[in-house]
Structures are given as structure tokens and as C-alpha cells.
Design goal:
This protein is of the alpha+beta class. The chain has helices spanning 6-22, 66-114; strands spanning 30-31, 36-42, 48-54. The chain folds into 2 domains: 1-57, no CATH class; 61-115.
């Protein structure tokens, strides 16, 4: 069986543990220390993994409220994801464009050699 990539495996584990927390299924989480809980989960490759969930408390800011800070982090994250998507789409377009260019050049060479 082919191994699933680390990025896919880690994303799946994060989604599963966050879903468990949102659904109130936190009985399986064990306290690790004052800032973290964790549990053993089986990943998409069938391997056991230790997954930690930590609580980070943001510093008090004089220039913005807690709500504004949270919203600014959400906005920054969404902007970064949008940038990644634009880059991904540009890459797909470039790959298609380069392929079409190579095919056209190969066809032109083929026509030249027939003459």
C-alpha cells in the first residue's frame, strides 16, 4: 500500500481532533501539562501518532481589543490562504501553457521533418 503524504496525514489528524473538540468528545484527551492535552490516534497510513492540543493565550494589547486581535489573525490567515490558491492556480495555468507550447513545437518539428 502506498504511503500517504505527511501533509495529508497531518491535516487529517488535525481535522479529526478539532472535530472531536467541537463535538464535545474530549473524554479521550489526557492532560499533558498546564498548557496541553493529547491523545494517541491512528493516522491514514495505519501508524499510531501522538497528537497534542495546546492553549495559547495571547498577550494583552494596548492598540486593539481581544476581538480585534482575533479578527486580525483570522483575516491574515484567510489572506495567506487566498495567496496560496492564486499561486496554485497560476502554476496549473503555467503547466498547461508550457505543455501546449511543447506540443506545438513538437508538431511544428514533425511537420518540418516531413517536408
Amino acid at each position: 500500500m502506498a504511503k500517504i503524504s505527511k501533509a495529508s496525514v497531518d491535516k487529517d489528524l488535525r481535522e479529526r481532533i478539532f472535530t472531536m473538540i467541537k463535538d464535545g468528545q474530549v473524554d479521550e484527551l489526557e492532560k499533558i501539562n498546564d498548557r496541553q492535552y493529547g491523545m494517541i490516534m491512528t493516522d491514514l497510513n495505519g501508524d499510531k501518532r501522538y497528537v497534542r492540543v495546546g492553549a495559547i493565550v495571547a498577550e494583552m494589547r494596548e492598540d486593539m481589543t481581544a476581538e480585534e486581535l482575533m479578527q486580525s489573525e483570522i483575516t491574515a490567515y484567510n489572506a495567506k490562504q487566498d495567496e496560496k490558491e492564486v499561486k496554485r492556480l497560476k502554476k496549473i495555468q503555467k503547466i498547461a501553457s508550457d505543455k501546449a507550447k511543447r506540443e506545438a513545437e513538437a508538431k511544428e518539428k514533425s511537420n518540418d521533418s516531413k517536408e
